[in-house]
Write a structure and sequence with these properties.
The protein has 307 residues and is mainly β. The chain is 0% helix and 53% strand.
Length: 307
């Protein structure tokens, strides 16, 4: 059963478009693919990529169908939130894959010099960044596929990697108990925010922000990327297992063990709750805010919500 309460919110003095995606539009079975654990809605595309064990699924959001699935033969570690060089990027152990999502196809992988943990990409810089198991940072040009280890940078105990805009890279440094921002030009540290526990996830927020959820906190954190300052939080009843932000920051989506799917306004008011989708293992929202994608690993289903 879903409960919906209307609310009007704003973020950083910008008017928020009323409403949020909460109506079930499509349910897609991953029974023959794997357990969907994470999803990424691609910018400038109607596609979402879904991590399901050893597979990557490409979901076409307009049709609500699984357009393709690719068996990588090894567990998929991460998918970049943005495209670079015209491709989406996925990381599986020591292999970095390019995915053409316009006509779904998988290109030959780039073999790294060791196991990678996290990947992020920037269309502005046309670059792909990978944190390696030895805490080093690998940077690659998305066109030439030429890459190198960034000198003097150690991503100690990394638990997440995300571009925070052109020329800004954010990393969760688990061993240092902090989220830190770096200038990708000179690699000076912009700043850092202390966190009370391990990071569960870090992902893009509204323009100029990255978001994070961490153990020991019931909040969805909004960190301003230009100066690495904790700008504000949206509070949930308990620590979310997965979360997402509306593109304007007006609402936070959270998957909570005791409540299922929650949609909470920036004021802290719970405007929607439902156990219909269980406790999603992954949540993402399209850049236009029109659809949300939920991954349920237990039922092996991916749900698409619309306004």
């Amino acid at each position: 059963m879903a409960v919906l309460i209307t609310s009007s919110c704003i973020f950083d003095s910008e008017p928020a478009e009323p409403g949020f995606p909460s109506e079930l539009e499509a349910s897609i079975s991953f029974e023959d693919v794997g357990a969907p654990a994470a999803c990424k809605c691609m910018p400038n595309s109607d596609a979402a990529l879904v991590i399901a064990d050893d597979h990557i699924g490409v979901v076409q959001l307009q049709t609500g169908q699984l357009a393709a699935s690719f068996d990588l033969g090894v567990a998929v570690d991460d998918i970049a939130d943005s495209q670079a060089g015209g491709y989406a990027w996925a990381l599986a152990d020591s292999l970095l894959y390019r995915i053409d999502i316009s006509a779904p196809s998988l290109l030959d992988p780039v073999r790294l010099d060791g196991r990678g943990l996290y990947v992020t990409a920037s269309s502005q810089e046309n670059a792909v960044m990978v944190v390696m198991e030895d805490d080093s940072l690998f940077r690659m040009d998305a066109d030439s596929i030429h890459g190198w280890t960034v000198p003097g940078i150690a991503m100690n105990g990394c638990q997440g990697l995300e571009y925070g805009g052109e020329g800004i890279l954010y990393a969760v440094l688990g061993s240092e108990g902090a989220i830190a921002g770096f200038d990708t030009g000179d690699w000076d540290e912009i700043g850092r925010v202390s966190i009370p526990g391990d990071a569960i996830d870090m992902f893009p927020g509204p323009s100029g922000y990255v978001c994070a959820i961490v153990d020991g906190s019931n909040e969805l954190w909004f960190i301003r990327t230009v100066d690495c300052k904790l700008y504000r939080m949206i509070t949930f009843p308990e620590t979310p297992a997965a979360a997402a932000s509306m593109p304007d920051g007006s609402y936070g989506y959270g998957a909570c063990a005791g409540s299922g799917l929650l949609i909470v306004a920036e004021s802290g008011q719970v405007d929607f709750r439902s156990m219909q989708y269980g406790v999603p293992a992954g949540i993402d929202i399209t850049p236009d805010g029109e659809r949300a994608v939920l991954c349920n690993a237990e039922t092996r289903m991916v749900h698409v919500l619309a306004r």
